[in-house]
Fold:
Amino acid sequence: MTGERDLDRLLTTMEPVARPGVWTFTTLPPGAPVPAGLDPVVTVAEAEGTTLVVPLDAARAAGLPADFAATWITLSVHSALDAVGLTAEVARRLTAAGISCNVVAGYFHDHLFVPRDRADDALRALAG
Structure:
């Protein structure tokens, strides 16, 4: 199943949905194992260490740094990995509203992590 590539169609059907929970980005030293009981939804290996996106409470319980409380918003449209312009338009809309955003592309959908206290504003900005 290939994803949508037409930017107009992507924008009119992206249907942003806030997922439950409070999420954070945290990090482990290079080569360190993921602590037992921690189930990251995103993992990124970097030279400086491994970035994990996990529930905020789980990061704190594991004694990991957890400074960023985020809401996870999924764009429901199945976007093609080689689609052009969706991320740029999402960034433009959120920038215009003064909202920071961390974007993760999955195979089927794009996922946005925005500050928890700006989640409703982000959803309104994306709906426009």
